[in-house]
Amino acid sequence: MARLGRTDVDVFPLVLGGNTFGWTSDENESHRVLDAFVAGGGNFIDTADSYTADVPGNSGGESETIIGSWLAARGNRDDLVIGTKVSQHPAFKGLAAGTVTAALDASLVRLGVDHVDVYYAHFDDPKTPLAETAGAFDALHKAGKIRVVALSNYTAPRIREWLDIARREGFEPPAVVQPDYNLVTRHRYEREIAPILAEEGIAAVPYFALASGFLTGKYRQVGPYRKALPYFQLIGAFVTGKNRRNKQEFGEVVRRVLASRYFTEAGLAVVEAVEEIASARGVEMSTVAIAWLRGRPGVVAPIASARTAEQLPALLASAEFELTEDEVAALDEVSARVE
Q1: For the chain, which domains are there?
Q2: 3-state class of 150 per DSSP?
Q3: Which residues pair with 45 in a beta bridge?
Q4: Could you tell me if 163 and 174 are in contact, meaning their C-beta atoms sit under 8 angstroms apart?
Q5: 136-186: per-residue pLDDT in tens?
Q6: Per-residue pLDDT at 185
Q7: For 16, 161, 171, 195, which has the most beta carbons within 10 A of its beta carbon?
Q8: Residues 280, 3: Cα–Cα separation, whole Å
């Protein structure tokens, strides 16, 4: 287990992402994934109130509802660390104080719990004064509805501003930050955010640990959906009209489009390096990629999702897999070339 920053919360060094639940994983398969994660030693589950509102047929909160039904069936709430997020649910947009409070109450109902362990501001809300948002999170912490204040997708200046407000007002400060960080997305986190986290004792829990599947080696060609459209236009066209598909097909396209962001000579060189190490050590590429991320300064537990229970062993293996110094150096060097 690893300590979550300066909190008293201990977590397994891999977080299970719940963004597939109610999307590419139906309720039964989601329960299988959750069972397998816990059986493998996992205890930290990550979701959001908005997962997965942008999927055809969904309205938001599906992931929380599925996790809630699993918690009720297994009766294991006290053994787990549950993290969820606010700001993107269609009914609770933004981070005004009233919105944050109402959104959490709705999340608690869907999850069937009386508190969440880690509560993230999912995306910054420039329309709401940061002091108002920080105050709302502090009030929920004092009320016992959240244990840990956390931030996701915040820039370094806004993290510092939240910390300054917390010190000035006596608010509970953020103890966890969730950045976009992996072998092909390094520089912004390492140059701007990591120094703040080291200075403040804040834990990093990175998402996109496998770069939307790119680091598994599955996506090595742009594929038929890339075309010349910007991402949101492409997804919008796919969801509507003659391009409408079921959730599984939609999920595959989203992953392929997201992975295509990394299709550069430097990005593909990283994939080759990961593959070489994985082949030599007899493990999956995902094990190698997440093990590298787990070993980075400040990183407590990377987040990875599994569509099926059969995908979990390679992810869980990353919690104990140790790269050699030479392997780390090789990955450091090749990934540093990705801009």
Answers
A1: 2-217+284-324 (3.20.20.100)
A2: strand
A3: 16, 82
A4: yes
A5: 999 999 999 999 999 999 999 999 999 999 999 999 999 999 999 999 999
A6: 97
A7: 16
A8: 32
